[in-house]
Every structure is written in C-alpha cells, then in structure tokens.
Amino acid sequence: xxxxxxxxxxxxxxxxxxxxxxxxxxxxxxxxxxxxxxxxxxxxxxxxxxxxxxxxxxxxxxxxxxxxxxxxxxxxxxxxxxxxxxxxxxxxxxxxxxxxxxxxxxxxxxxxxxxxxxxxxxxxxxxxxxxxxxxxxxxxxxxxxxxxxxxxxxxxxxxxxxxxxxxxxxxxxxxxxxxxxxxxxxxxxxxxxxxxxxxxxxxxxxxxxxxxxxxxxxxxxxxxxxxxxxxxxxxxxxxxxxxxxxxxxxxxxxxxxxxxxxxxxxxxxxxxxxxxxxxxxxxxxxxxxxxxxxxxxxxxxxxxxxxxxxxxxxxxxxxxxxxxxxxxxxxxxxxxx
Length: 337
Description:
By secondary structure, the protein is α+β, with helices and mostly antiparallel strands. It folds into two domains: about 5-75, Orthogonal Bundle (434 Repressor (Amino-terminal Domain)), CATH 1.10.260; about 80-335, no CATH class. It contains 14 helices and eight strands. α12 (about 205-230) packs antiparallel against α14 (about 310-335).
C-alpha cells in the first residue's frame, strides 16, 4: 500500500510516543480540534490543512523537505545553535537534556558512539572535568563575554546546570552502548589543561592538579566499567548495574564525535560540528549507512570490555602515563612560583 506524505508524517509522530492515545492528546491541542477529528486525520479521511502541516513540522521538528525529496541524494539536518541560540551554559545543556529525557522513555533503545575525544556523557561522571570543558567551550566556541577575563574555577556551571548534568548521567548509565575509542581520546583535554596552566588561566595550580586527579579517577572508573561490561555510577556499589557497554579499541579510524541512536521508532544521528555543537540527522538512508559503518569498524577493532584483559590494561595504562606527564609539568611550574 502506497504511503502518502500525511501517512509518513503521522507514522513518525506516533513513533515519538509510547502510546497512541498520548499522541492524540497532543495533536488535539495542537490542531485545536476534537479527538474524532484527529483520528480522521490519522486515518487519512481528512487531509491536513497547510497550517496544520506547518504546526506539525514545528512542534515535532520535522523537515517537510526530507519527506518530499526522500528518494533524492539530499540529506537534511538540524543544527542546535540555529534551533536555540546558545547564550549561556544552561541553553546548551537543556537541549541535550531534552534529548536524553525522550530517549530514556523509548524501549529497546541503544546508542553507538565513535569518537576521537572523550564521549560527552563520560565527562558527567566527574563534575570537575565537565566544569573545565564547559569553561573551554564557553570561551572558545560560544564566546561568552563573562568568561573572557575569568580564571577557571569549579563553579562555572550553576546548580541548575549541574542538576541537568546529573540527570543526563543517569540516563546514559541506563542506556546500552557500543563505543569505539582510541588511546588518544584524552589528548585534547590534557593539552587544554597544559595550555591553560601555561596561560595563567587557573585561579590556582592546585585546581589544575585536582583536575588531573579527577581525570585519573575517570580513567580508573572506565577501566572498571569495561572489565565488568556494564555501567555504574562512581558513588554507588558496582553491583547496581546500569546498561551494557561494549567498548572497542580502534586506532585506524579518526572521525568527529558521532552518536547513532537506534530506537524502535527509527535511527537518528548526532554528529559534532564546531564541537561541542552538533548536527542532528533523521534521514534513514544516512542512518543505515552510518550503522553499517559502525558494524564494519567493529570488526576491525579490539573489544576491551569484559574480555581482553591484557590489551585493556595496556590501553588504560597508556592514558594514566599521559596524565602523569602533565602532572609532572604542573608540579615543575608550582616549584618555580
């Protein structure tokens, strides 16, 4: 049976809700009509008016072009700063918080993550590291005026932002993930620490040492996570299991941070662009292409979760050595003051 544009739109909209009745409630309010009128539209007995199409696209962030040109070699995406200008830290965190809030309610959902840097959600394990990364992004990417002359401290993110970060960490911990890491994923962050030490951007060099200690804690935590094969919160017993993690070591593929969500409603890609900003892509052809890419790379990678103890130890020990090198340089700076 041939699906009309209206059929495809409603199919995607209904996929965003656990129950059809919940979607009907939202559509009733959106269109300003009764439930019977909504069901007539869902069945195709009544065609959507132009204003209703527009309201549907805006409400659920749907690109009508992508439905019209679905067979063309054209991919449409959303760029998060265009959706909402990032004026402060909360603006950025709220966008990701909404995404993770939606994902956690979808059953049988998993996340694939390939990255050349530490995965975003992994920063959330230790707030001090997240504070530092937000400080860097705020100065370099978003160019927040209030950070221009401010030296780094561990209070860059306010209580509201930290509450969202902790919520997102809980969502991430519950979510089954397949992650591809290289042994250089810490290099960018460690270089940033060293740069800000040399540039005098730390209020105290003790803060820089504390930051390195938390990065070491993060490496230790992820090694334990990989050994167990499931995620858990640092402040909880290891027996409280989160989602499964399949962690792979790959040194051959260098890419930007790319996340693929695989849900019953379809797949979606989030790819970094002017990191930490990101592009969101719902085009299913590209999603399937990306999924196939993940699967190919997996076959060329070494699994270090649960199995491969010797390789896993070398992988994480390499990171710890890099951290110690940075700590040694900071210590030398402290001794000359």
